[in-house]
Amino acid sequence: MAKLLSDEEVAEALTRLPHWKREGDALARTVELASFPQAIQVVNRVAEIAESEDHHPDIDIRWRNLTFRLSTHSAGGLTEMDVSMATEIDGVVDQL
Ligand SMILES: C[C@H](O)[C@H](O)[C@H]1CNC2=NC(N)=NC(=O)C2=N1
Asked: What biological processes does GO assign it (predicted)?
Protein backbone atom coordinates (compact mmCIF):
# COMPACT_ATOMS: atom_id res chain seq x y z
CA MET A 1 0.00 0.00 0.00
CA ALA A 2 1.18 3.53 -0.75
CA LYS A 3 2.85 5.34 2.14
CA LEU A 4 1.09 8.35 3.67
CA LEU A 5 2.98 11.63 3.25
CA SER A 6 3.90 13.65 6.34
CA ASP A 7 2.58 17.23 6.71
CA GLU A 8 6.06 18.45 5.76
CA GLU A 9 6.15 16.29 2.63
CA VAL A 10 2.72 17.58 1.59
CA ALA A 11 3.80 21.19 2.17
CA GLU A 12 6.94 20.58 0.12
CA ALA A 13 4.93 19.02 -2.73
CA LEU A 14 2.56 22.01 -2.73
CA THR A 15 5.48 24.37 -3.45
CA ARG A 16 5.65 22.57 -6.84
CA LEU A 17 1.85 22.65 -7.28
CA PRO A 18 0.87 26.32 -6.97
CA HIS A 19 -2.70 25.75 -8.23
CA TRP A 20 -3.46 23.18 -5.52
CA LYS A 21 -4.35 23.58 -1.88
CA ARG A 22 -4.64 21.12 0.94
CA GLU A 23 -8.15 20.40 2.22
CA GLY A 24 -7.68 18.02 5.13
CA ASP A 25 -6.79 14.64 3.66
CA ALA A 26 -7.10 15.85 0.07
CA LEU A 27 -5.47 18.10 -2.52
CA ALA A 28 -7.90 20.33 -4.40
CA ARG A 29 -7.77 22.46 -7.52
CA THR A 30 -10.62 24.42 -9.11
CA VAL A 31 -10.30 25.49 -12.72
CA GLU A 32 -12.57 27.55 -14.96
CA LEU A 33 -12.60 26.48 -18.60
CA ALA A 34 -13.79 28.47 -21.60
CA SER A 35 -16.99 26.45 -22.02
CA PHE A 36 -18.91 23.41 -20.74
CA PRO A 37 -17.76 21.20 -23.68
CA GLN A 38 -14.15 22.13 -22.95
CA ALA A 39 -14.64 21.26 -19.28
CA ILE A 40 -16.02 17.86 -20.28
CA GLN A 41 -13.05 17.35 -22.61
CA VAL A 42 -10.74 17.92 -19.64
CA VAL A 43 -12.78 15.47 -17.53
CA ASN A 44 -12.51 12.84 -20.28
CA ARG A 45 -8.73 13.23 -20.57
CA VAL A 46 -8.32 13.05 -16.80
CA ALA A 47 -10.60 9.97 -16.73
CA GLU A 48 -8.29 8.19 -19.19
CA ILE A 49 -5.24 8.93 -17.06
CA ALA A 50 -7.10 7.92 -13.89
CA GLU A 51 -8.08 4.57 -15.42
CA SER A 52 -4.60 3.85 -16.70
CA GLU A 53 -3.09 4.60 -13.27
CA ASP A 54 -5.97 3.13 -11.26
CA HIS A 55 -6.11 6.30 -9.19
CA HIS A 56 -9.31 8.33 -9.41
CA PRO A 57 -9.96 11.93 -8.42
CA ASP A 58 -13.30 13.16 -7.12
CA ILE A 59 -14.53 15.58 -9.76
CA ASP A 60 -17.14 18.27 -9.19
CA ILE A 61 -18.61 19.68 -12.42
CA ARG A 62 -20.48 22.99 -12.32
CA TRP A 63 -21.05 24.33 -15.81
CA ARG A 64 -17.48 25.25 -16.91
CA ASN A 65 -15.92 25.08 -13.45
CA LEU A 66 -14.24 21.87 -12.37
CA THR A 67 -12.95 20.99 -8.93
CA PHE A 68 -10.60 18.04 -8.62
CA ARG A 69 -9.99 16.46 -5.20
CA LEU A 70 -7.27 13.89 -4.74
CA SER A 71 -6.79 11.52 -1.85
CA THR A 72 -5.66 7.91 -1.59
CA HIS A 73 -8.70 6.22 -0.07
CA SER A 74 -6.96 2.89 0.52
CA ALA A 75 -4.22 4.63 2.54
CA GLY A 76 -6.58 7.03 4.33
CA GLY A 77 -4.84 10.22 3.22
CA LEU A 78 -2.31 11.78 0.87
CA THR A 79 0.37 9.79 -0.90
CA GLU A 80 2.78 10.29 -3.81
CA MET A 81 0.00 8.97 -6.07
CA ASP A 82 -2.00 12.13 -5.35
CA VAL A 83 0.96 14.40 -6.01
CA SER A 84 1.63 12.57 -9.26
CA MET A 85 -2.02 12.78 -10.38
CA ALA A 86 -2.13 16.51 -9.50
CA THR A 87 0.87 17.03 -11.78
CA GLU A 88 -0.87 15.08 -14.56
CA ILE A 89 -4.08 17.09 -14.18
CA ASP A 90 -2.04 20.30 -14.42
CA GLY A 91 -0.59 18.93 -17.65
CA VAL A 92 -4.08 18.37 -19.11
CA VAL A 93 -5.35 21.81 -18.07
CA ASP A 94 -2.20 23.62 -19.23
CA GLN A 95 -2.36 21.94 -22.65
CA LEU A 96 -5.53 23.85 -23.54
C1 LIG B 1 -8.59 -1.88 -6.44
C2 LIG B 1 -8.11 -0.53 -6.83
O3 LIG B 1 -6.71 -0.45 -6.82
C4 LIG B 1 -8.62 0.54 -5.94
O5 LIG B 1 -9.97 0.44 -5.66
C6 LIG B 1 -8.22 1.94 -6.36
C7 LIG B 1 -9.08 2.59 -7.43
N8 LIG B 1 -8.91 4.04 -7.43
C9 LIG B 1 -8.54 4.70 -6.33
N10 LIG B 1 -8.51 6.03 -6.31
C11 LIG B 1 -8.19 6.71 -5.23
N12 LIG B 1 -8.18 8.04 -5.26
N13 LIG B 1 -7.86 6.08 -4.09
C14 LIG B 1 -7.84 4.74 -4.00
O15 LIG B 1 -7.53 4.20 -2.93
C16 LIG B 1 -8.18 3.99 -5.16
N17 LIG B 1 -8.16 2.69 -5.16
From this structure: tetrahydrobiopterin biosynthetic process
